[in-house]
């Protein structure tokens, strides 16, 4: 699956870019929420997500890069999020947070920073619908892909299979036509791409090309 990251969209033409994704073969709208505390950047808040939700016809894949994400679980459910991913590193009681997300009717995701070992999810993997694996350091778009990601995907896939879980593996950061197939072959199910899609001359065609390559 392909999830274009709206962090790379043109905020002056957000409706246009959301509708472009609607009309493409993309699967999800990926929405990064940054608080300037957990990551050194601020993206957009509730009103912008509300505007995206108004026009989006595909599932909203919301990635919270914030401290104390529990405060906003209910809010994002009300905004219409389909998936809500919280960072492992930001959760004191991960199992409880996952249950709270599911209680609001959303799919529960856990995001991992590049340095975080996937074995830390061993006890909760069966409760996780999506693992959003950061293949760049979170906080900014357009960064270079971290090559160690492939080994992490393979290790995570092995854990999912060993535990009999149905968790999807999502890769976020530095995804291009150069690594899409290798990521899929390593075990990725969802590819998040921002700059690569929105900086291209024909984003709809680029989305289709990514799907074809990873196919």
TrEMBL record:
Catalyzed reactions per annotation: D-ribulose 5-phosphate = D-xylulose 5-phosphate
InterPro entries given in the database record: Aldolase_TIM, Ribul_P_3_epim, Ribul_P_3_epim-like, RibuloseP-bd_barrel
Keywords, ordered alphabetically: Carbohydrate metabolism, Cobalt, Isomerase, Manganese, Metal-binding, Zinc
Entry EC no(s): 5.1.3.1
GO molecular function, one term: D-ribulose-phosphate 3-epimerase activity
Pfam families cross-referenced by the UniProt entry: Ribul_P_3_epim
GO biological process: pentose catabolic process; pentose-phosphate shunt
Gene3D superfamilies from the UniProt entry: Aldolase class I
CDD domains named in the record: RPE
Binding site for substrate: 5, 63, 139-142, 172-174, 194-195
Catalytic residues of the enzyme: 32, 172
Amino acids binding a divalent metal cation: 30, 32, 63, 172
Domain of life: Bacteria
Cofactor note: Binds 1 divalent metal cation per subunit.
PROSITE patterns: RIBUL_P_3_EPIMER_2
Top EC class for this record: isomerase
Pathway assignment: Carbohydrate degradation
Gene Ontology CC annotations of this record: cytoplasm
Coiled coil: none
Signal peptide: none
Needed cofactors: Mn(2+); a divalent metal cation; Zn(2+); Co(2+)
Function: Catalyzes the reversible epimerization of D-ribulose 5-phosphate to D-xylulose 5-phosphate.
PANTHER family: RIBULOSE-5-PHOSPHATE-3-EPIMERASE (PTHR11749)
Family: Belongs to the ribulose-phosphate 3-epimerase family.
Name assigned to this protein: Ribulose-phosphate 3-epimerase
Organism annotation: Cellulophaga algicola (strain DSM 14237 / IC166 / ACAM 630)
Organism phylogeny: Bacteria, Pseudomonadati, Bacteroidota, Flavobacteriia, Flavobacteriales
């Amino acid at each position: 699956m392909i999830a274009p990251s709206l962090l790379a969209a043109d905020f002056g033409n957000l409706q246009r870019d959301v509708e472009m994704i609607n009309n493409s073969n993309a699967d999800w709208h990926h929405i990064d929420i940054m608080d300037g505390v957990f990551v050194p950047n601020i993206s957009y808040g509730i009103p912008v997500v509300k505007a995206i939700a108004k026009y989006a016809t595909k599932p909203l894949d919301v990635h919270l890069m914030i401290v104390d994400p529990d405060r906003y679980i209910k809010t994002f459910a009300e905004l219409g999020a389909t998936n809500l991913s919280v960072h492992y590193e930001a959760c004191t009681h991960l199992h409880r947070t996952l249950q709270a997300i599911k209680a609001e009717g959303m799919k529960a995701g856990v995001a991992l920073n590049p340095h975080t070992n996937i074995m830390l999810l061993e006890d909760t993997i069966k409760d996780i619908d999506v693992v959003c694996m950061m293949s760049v350091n979170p906080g900014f778009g357009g960064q270079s892909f971290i090559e160690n990601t492939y080994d992490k995907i393979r290790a995570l896939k092995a854990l999912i299979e060993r535990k009999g879980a149905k968790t999807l593996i999502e890769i976020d950061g530095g995804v291009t036509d150069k690594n899409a197939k290798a990521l899929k072959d390593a075990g990725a199910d969802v590819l998040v791409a921002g700059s690569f899609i929105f900086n291209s001359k024909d984003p709809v065609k680029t989305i289709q090309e990514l799907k074809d390559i990873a196919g």
